Amino acid sequence: MIRLEGLTRKFNGLTAVDNLNFEVKEGEIFGLLGPNGAGKTTTVRMLCCLIKPTNGRAFIGDYEIGRDAMKIREIVGLLPESPGLYGELSAYRNLDFYAKLYGVPKKRREENIERFLKMMGLWERRNDPVGTFSKGMQQKIAIVRSMLHEPKVLFLDEPTAALAPDSAKIVRDFILELKHEKRTIFICTHNLYEAERVCDRVAIINTKLITLGSPAQLQREFGSGKTEIQLKNLGPKVIKAVKKVKGVLKVDVAGDKLFVQSRDPESVNPKVVEEIVKNGGKVIYVTRGMLGLEEVYLKLVGKDEI
Amino acid sequence: MRFDRIWEIAKKDIASVRRYKYVLYGLVVMPLIFAFVVPVVSLVPILGSENLSGELPPFAPPGYSPKQAMILWMVSMFSLFFMFIPAFVPSVIASYTFVGEKINKQLEPLLATPTTDSELLLGKALGAFLPAVGVTFASFFGMVVLVDALTFPIFGYPLLPNLISLVVLFVYCPLIAILSVSVSVFISSKVNDVRAATQLSGVTVFPVLGFYFLFIGGFLRLDWVELALFAALLVFADLGLYYLSKMTFRREEILTKWK
C-alpha cells in the first residue's frame, strides 16, 4: 500500500531523510520509530504530499507522491504533530469544516462525525469551543478529523503524545479497531510500549533506515540472551550461587524473579538451574527473557550514533 | 477549482475573526468614525455658519456659493475616506488568518486536504475581502443617509451618491481590498508575529494616502480620466501582487520556508 524507493529529503544541504526503502502492506499497522530529528515527520510530510522529496520516489497504492498529489490527499488522513484545531469554533464545526474540504457528502459527514465523536467519548461536548478542551481532548478531535473521509491510509504523528493513560488506551483501541476495517495505519511514535502493542511491524530510523521487522522479530534478533527464572522464595544464597556460575554475565533480581544474562544460554542455563536447586531454590518457571522494544531501540539508535 | 471549498474556507475565516478584538475594531469603530463622526464634526460647523468667506476649495464648481462649494468639496473628501477601510481591514484579517494559523500550527492539516493552492489562497482572500467590503458598503450607506439629511436643506437635492462616491465604492474599494489581501499574504510568509504582519501590511494605505493628499492639495480634479487612471493603477498593482502572493503561497514553502 505504501512503497518507498530511495526516498530522500535534504534541507539546505542537510539530509533529513536518507534513502529510505521499505513497503507497508495494506491493512498493516506500521510504526516509524526514531529519535528527535530522525526524519519521521519529514517522511510523513513527503508521503502526504506536503513536501517533495529531493530524491527517490514513493507510492501510496498506485499513486506516486508529487505526481498524483491531489489523488493521494483524497485517500490519506493525517494527524500532524500539533492538533491545529480552530479553538474558537466548536468541535462539530471544526470537523464539519474539514469533512467538507474532503468532499464528504452531507449524510455521511453527519454520520461519521457522530460515530467517531461517540467512539472518542466527546459527542456530548460537540458544541463546545475546542479552545476550552484539554490537550488530550483536542488530540482526540484531531484524530477524528483525520478519519472523517474514511481514508485508506492513515498517518498518525505521535497520536498519544499529549494523552493521559486512559485516553491513550482509548486511542490505541481506536487504532486497533481501524485495523479491523482493513485500513493501513502509519504511526510515528516515541512511545515504544505503544508501538510494541499496536504495530505489526516497525522501522527504526535515524535519518536512514536502521532496521525493520515485527516487534517480536527485532526482540529476538537483537536480544542479548536474558533468561527469566521465577522461583518460590528467592533467597540470597541462591543469588550468590547463580552469580558464581561460569558464563553468567549479569544477574538482576526483581521480587522472586531472577534475570540471568549470558552469552551462551544453551550451555549456561542448565548449570544455573542445577545450582538453584542445589542451594535449596524452588524453580517455578524458566522462560526466555526477550528484550523489550525499548531496549532494542536504545541499543540500535545508540549503536548507530556511535 | 471548486467554489464550495473556497467558500468553506472563507466562511470559516469569517467565523474565526470575531474573536480578534483588533479586527473588530477595524470592522466596527473605523467605519463608525468615517460614516458618522467625520461628517458630523466637519459639516455641522459649516452648515451652522451664516457667511463663509475666504478662499474657495480647489476646483470649486462654478455657480455655487462658497458655503456650497466647501460642502461639495468636503463630501468628495468623505467618499475618499472610505478607501481606508478596505486598505486596513483585510490586512488585519489576513494577518490573523495567515500568521495566526501559522503560529497555531493550523495550516498543516489544512494543507493536507485535497484543496489546491489556488482554492486555499482564494478562500482565505475571500474571508478577508468580504467583511471589509461588506462593512465599507454598510457604513457608506449610513454616511450617504446622514450627509444627504444634513445638506438637503442647503442644496435642495441629495448630494450623494455621486460619481466619485460610486467609483470609490464599487471600483476602488474592492480593488484596494484585493491589494491589501495580496500584500498581507506576501508579508505573512516573511514574519512570525501577527502585529508585525498587520503593521507591515499597512503599506497598502500609502497609495490611498497618496491619492487622498493629491486631492486635498488640489492636484486632482477627480474627473473621468483621473478616476480611470487610478483604477488602472490599482488593477495593475492587484495583478502583480496577486501573482506574487500566489508564488509565495505554496504548501511546501509554507511548511519549510515560512518563518
Summarize the structure.
The complex is a heterodimer of chains A (306) and B (259). By secondary structure, chain A is of the alpha/beta class.
Extended strand count of chain B: 0
Q: Describe the largest sheet of chain A.
A: 6 strands, mixed
Decide which structural class fits the backbone of chain A: alpha/beta
What distance separates the N and C termini of chain A?
A: 34 Å
Cα-atom Rg of chain A, whole angstroms? 24 Å
User: What is the strand content of chain B?
Assistant: under 5%
What does this structure look like?
The complex is a heterodimer of chains A (306) and B (259). With 306 residues, chain A is an alpha/beta fold. Chain A has helices at residues 40-47, 69-75, 91-101, 106-119, 135-147, 165-180, 192-198, 215-222, 236-244, 265-278, 293-305, and strands spanning 2-11, 14-24, 29-33, 55-60, 63-64, 76-79, 153-157, 184-189, 201-206, 208-213, 226-232, 248-254, 257-262, 282-289. In chain A, β9 (201-206) and β10 form a beta hairpin. Chain A starts with a strand and ends with a helix. Chain B has 259 residues and is mainly α. Chain B contains eleven helices and no strands. The longest helix of chain B is centred in the middle third of the chain and has 39 residues, at 117-155. The mean pLDDT of chain B is 85. The chains are: A alpha/beta (306), B mainly alpha (259). Chain A binds chain B through residues 11, 45, 48, 50-52, 70, 73-74, 76, 78, 80-82, 84-89, 93, 97-98, 100-103, 142, 145-146, and chain B through 4-5, 8-9, 12, 15-16, 18-19, 104-116, 251-252, 255-256.
